[in-house]
Structure formats: C-alpha cells, structure tokens
Amino acid sequence: MDEGLATRLRAAFNARDIDTLRSLLAKDATWGEDPNGDSFCHDRDAIVRHLKRLLAEGVRPTIVKTTTGPRGIAASLEVEWPDPEHAPPDRITFCQVYVVTDGLVTEIYGHDDEDSALVAISD
Questions:
Q1: Tens of pLDDT along the chain (123 residues)?
Q2: Structural domains in the chain?
Q3: 49 — phi, psi (to 5°)?
Q4: How many Cα atoms within 13 Å fall on the side-chain side of residue 18?
Q5: C-beta atoms surrounding 27 within 10 Å
Q6: Which residues pair with 73 in a beta bridge?
Q7: pTM recorded for the entire structure
Q8: Which region holds residue 65: left if phi is over 0, alpha if psi is between -120 and 50, else beta?
Q9: Which of these, 20, 73, 80, 119, is most buried using a 10 Å CB contact count?
C-alpha cells in the first residue's frame, strides 16, 4: 500500500478538508460495523453527510497516527467531544481501519485497539 494515500487522508481529515476527503473515497464506500444500524453509511455521500454532522455538533477527531498494510490504513484517532460530561467515558482514542481498493477508501470501520486494526490491514 502506498504511504502517500495515508498521508493525504491524514492531512485532509485533520484539516477538515471535506472536498479532499470526498475525493479519497470510492463512490460505494461504507462506514460502520452494522449495515442495518442507524449510523451505518452506505455510500460516499452518506459518509460526507455523517462527517459534516459530527463536525457541526462540535466533535473534533484528529488522526494522530497511521500505519499502512496490504489491505489499507490503520489510524489512531483522538477525539475532543463538545460536551465532555456526555462523552463516552473511556473513548478519547479510537482505532479505525480504512480498506483501500484501487487507490480509494472502500470501507471504514472501528476496532477496539491498535493491534486488532493492524491485523485487519495485514490480511
């Protein structure tokens, strides 16, 4: 996997550059673990809408580390919540996997820890 995509993803994500982020996603990209869940995003437009909504609500995620592997990118994110009293109690750091196919992100989903995210991109 090309390290350049991970660098572009991290830079666009951290700059809140929605147009560049959109250009890194496949049209049929998905985000989430449960395809039947309310927060699952079934395509690029839904991902962009979801991200814009989170940012409008004051959620401030930052990718602090990326690692590439044969299947994609593992990212460690730190999240600032607009209302720390109602933030998830132990969820300041998240791990996400960005599956890459033909140079575009096709899937985004969370992992409980960095080790499992690294395994997911290594298969």
A1: 668 999 999 999 999 999 999 999 999 999 998 889 888 999 999 999 999 999 998 888 999 999 999 999 999 999 887 876 666 655 578 899 999 999 999 999 999 899 999 999 997
A2: 3-122 (3.10.450.50)
A3: -60, -45
A4: 13
A5: 9
A6: 68, 98
A7: 0.90
A8: beta
A9: 73
